[in-house]
Fold this protein.
Amino acid sequence: MPTEIKKEVTLEIVHVLFLDIVGYSKRLTDEQQALIDQLNQVVRSSAVFQKAEGVDRLIKIPTGDGMALIFYNSPEQPVECALEISRELKGFPELLVRMGVHSGPVSAVTDLNDRTNAAGIGINVAQRVMDCGDSGHILLSKRVAEDLQQYGRWRPHLHDLGEVEVKHGVQVHVFNLYTDGAGNPDLPEKLRQPKPTRRSEPTPAPARPAQNVKTARERASICVLPFANMSGDREQEYFSDGITEDIITDLSKVSALDIISRNTAFTFKDKPVDVQQVAAQLRVSHVLEGSVRKAAGRVRITAQLIDGSNDSHVWAERYDRDLNDIFALQDEISRAIVDALKVKLLPEEKKAIARRGTENVDAYNLYLMARESYTTGFEGDGRRNETIIRLCRRAVEIDPNYAEAWALIAMAEMLLRSSSSGGGDGGLAAAERALELNADLAEAHAVKARIFSEEKRHDEASREIETALRLDPESHQVNKCAALLRFRQQRLEESIPYFEKAVALEEGDFGSAGMLITCYTALGNREAARRAAEITLARAEKVLAHDPNNGSAMGHGSDALAVLGQGERAKDWMARALLIDPENLTMRYNFVCALANHLNEKEAALEMLGPAFEKMGAGLVNHAKIDPDMDPLREHPRFKAMLAAAEKRVESSS
């Protein structure tokens, strides 16, 4: 590591991570030294730090209660380092640290000891950004955030907090960075405080252009919080969630509004919220909240639109209707919000809001149940896929023109055929029926791409997935399909942004997080694989907390445990899951990945794989042929024999 910067060198744009210990000055002298020693230990454990230091591309500047780290290559370096430090700090609860990152110019200066060091606006702004945060925060300047937003893997973790006034009246625009395992999602205390009002001056109003400066968001922006289920029956949760999602979808069709995504909004589900805090955290002008009660063929919906700046009600209404009026009721709510915000709807937007997949409430109710089962479950769960097919088949019996239900049937049939040779034609007829009814249904194009991929019709699959991405780039299902398609085509680096986005769009999706473990491990990015494992494990544990017999969650969770060095716990999960759900083929497959790739137990992996190879469908067999997790076994004679037998069985059955 260079301890000095040559005097003749003037640094160009560099990337600065500034960090300090919160409450440092209040500690006793011996406590201060102990904390600094701990912080140095944590920072030095960072793989990014070690790599930059090893190639002499890192400058370290101690600051008394913290340090500044200057990286040369990329704004990702200080951010990755900050995430690693944040995760490591969980083992030091007494060490409270905040961090700030900025990219900017830093120049060489000579200090009183005639040593050359670094100084400049790049370091100063990084410190100002850090000063806006509390313990655990990783705050980024707008410049860094804009650079990171060019990469799909970062976008879901960047949260715009707007401008903050710091020392000397300077304004800095900051973003909060946090993931499932690092950072602090809370709004910094500094941003919760009311902005100081300036004393009025005797200057005539026309001469004060500052009064005409517009707010950071000129357009109306809304977060639709998950509507509370007031039915007294947890089983009705799917309905209140479905109403919320449909209102988000309706409002998203209005070009004059900015709507927070479903996934971000649902992070507040079942949590007490402060509306003003939510509005400030998400940088929205308004928040919509409400409740749903469904019973005895009637539905009661209360909704209120709140101004995020002052917590006042802009609009509120209670509706008590026959359940058959649910679609008209959703239209009324969406239009009332648009009217309250004085937004003008374009003619095509009015039609888009009024357009529903079905006008039959019974079919809609069945579809909502099936959709909830899909979004909260795991693709490889055969029993769940059979349930989805039954629900949607009944829905299309009631309304044969329900395109969304046909598309979901196609997805479930494709998954059944892929994993266990079930599912008839693999969903192709259902997908084509959906597209006959609605050629612009992105999910139908996405599932058709998956079906073509299963049949190795890669060119046709690529065309379908590109159409799906063009129609709805924010769809969880579309992004997951795009990721898996590229993975099967052995384009791992291209698959990662789509898996990352799928993980961000659906907080219950542990499967996509598990696939990121595979991708990052194959590419040699151990730190990213570990990060993906932390997310996978957290999501699997959340599922198991309310469904302890979920073999699919234990499958991906055990792989994550193995990556995180908890081998014995991983094996405990495997033993328990095999007793509970021995016929779950994808669960067994994931156990094999853990044993072969992370626990180095090849014989145990082969024993686990044998019963699965005897029953798995064409999709899972083809997956095993290219899956890098199987590479440790690939040259083993027993693996070759099992794979050949499985291919022969699949070919004969098709």
